[in-house]
Amino acid sequence: MQCCSSVLRPTLCILANWIFFVTSGVSQKSELSCHFGMMSGGLAVCLLPLLVFPQSVVPQEKALWQGEGTTADLQEVILGRCYNYIRVVNPSVGEKNCTAIWNAFRDAFIYRDPCSVTDRDYQTFISLSLHSIPPNKALFWEKNKQLVHSYSDTGRRMMPLGETLIGWLGDDLTWCGNSSGEGLDSVSCPTTAECENNPVESFWRIASSTYANLSSGVIQVMLNGSVSDGTFPENSFFANYELPYLRKDKVSKVQIWIMDDIEGPDVESCGTKSVAVLQQILEQKGFEYTCADNYRSVRTLQCVDSPSHPACLCSSSASTPNLSPHHLVILLFFTFQWTAVD
After folding, report:
1. What are the C-alpha distances in Å from 209 to residues 136, 162, 167?
2. Per-residue pLDDT at 22 exceeds 60
3. Fewest CB within a 10 Å sphere: which of 236, 252, 291, 298?
4. What angle do CA 108, 113, 119 make, to 5 degrees?
5. How do strand 44-47 and strand 139-142 relate by DSSP bridges?
């Protein structure tokens, strides 16, 4: 800003300039006066009053719930995941209308009370996203998500729910609606403790039951044997929304793998505590099942990250098997037999 100038004589100069500032989001105007005075030697100077520019005040929306708000750029995330899945991750599912899938997903909860969204609200979304689960590749789990997805190898070895299109779209995201603005609550969303019929909980309920209903052949169940609050929790998604929806006419066998953390502890094993409860339920439902503690293939994968752990170390003479005299005699016998035949 430039003040008015004048010749060397006492005078008063008023400069009417408009200063724009924002207070609480509303533009206002303030008139500024510049007073001209005299200093020694007759030098004219401008005496500017002290200007105080109030800081911009942006009202913050109050959090209504205890959970995190809707994931930023949710539409872009969902659409990006959809195209990535059908083009790169699993193109065998064929063409899917990702825009229609997003619209159906959004319409299930946008502008809605976040405590009144039910499983049925996602039915159109489920229908548009549905695809088959290859036989013998269904993998259910509780409390060992990272290990499960490492083992499944993005659907190449197994196909847990999170590696179907439905699960791929919703994994690790948060969303809920409100009745104002853009219809999404970006500040907070209800937790399950606050209300069970929240958008995320209802989504995973119908996703889980749908996944179980589609599973066929030999299915796998990977549970954590090191947790203290139950390897097979009675209020888990597997117990409430997957196990009850397994179809006896489609599932030939259930293989249970109880995997301890590589560092332990060994809290539960096959036939004990909550695992015994699961086995009893399977028997009552007429499912054939097996149960293995620290299934070797998965244990080997755990050892990739902890190769020096005692549970992962082989015998120092691994290249030369340590055979008992009995086994050595049998080996020599068959060696001589093969030699005689040649």
Report:
1. 17, 13, 12
2. no
3. 252
4. 40
5. unpaired
Q: Distance (Å, rounded) from C-alpha 144 to C-alpha 294?
A: 13
Mean pLDDT, residues 110-128 taken together: 98
Average pLDDT value over all residues in the chain: 82
- What's residue 64's pLDDT? 87
- pLDDT (mean) for 270-284: 98
Residue by residue, DSSP assigns 182-222 as TSB-SSEE--TTT-SS-HHHHHHHHHHHHHHHH--EEEEEE
Q: Degrees (nearest 5) of the Cα angle 146, 140, 159?
A: 75
One-letter identity of residue 208 = S
CA dist 82 and 103 (Å) reads 12
Q: How many CB atoms lie within 10 A of CB 18?
A: 8
Task: Give the pLDDT band of residue 63 (cuts 50, 70, 90).
Answer: confident
SS3 (DSSP) at 126: helix
Share of the chain above pLDDT 90, in %: 70
Residue 265 preceded by cis peptide, ω within 30 = yes
Q: Is the pLDDT of residue 282 over 50?
A: yes
Mean pLDDT (whole number) for 158-180: 97
Name the helix (H) or strand (E) containing 290.
strand 289-293
Q: Name every residue whose Cβ is closer than 8 Å to that of residue 104 and which is 6 or more positions away in sequence.
A: 122, 124, 125, 128
Q: What is the rounded CA–CA span in Å between residue 117 and residue 109?
A: 6
C-alpha neighbours within 13 Å on the C-beta side of residue 278: 33
**DSSP three-state, residue 242:** helix
Pair 229, 268: CB distance under 8 Å? no
For residue 326 the two structure tokens come to 């009995």
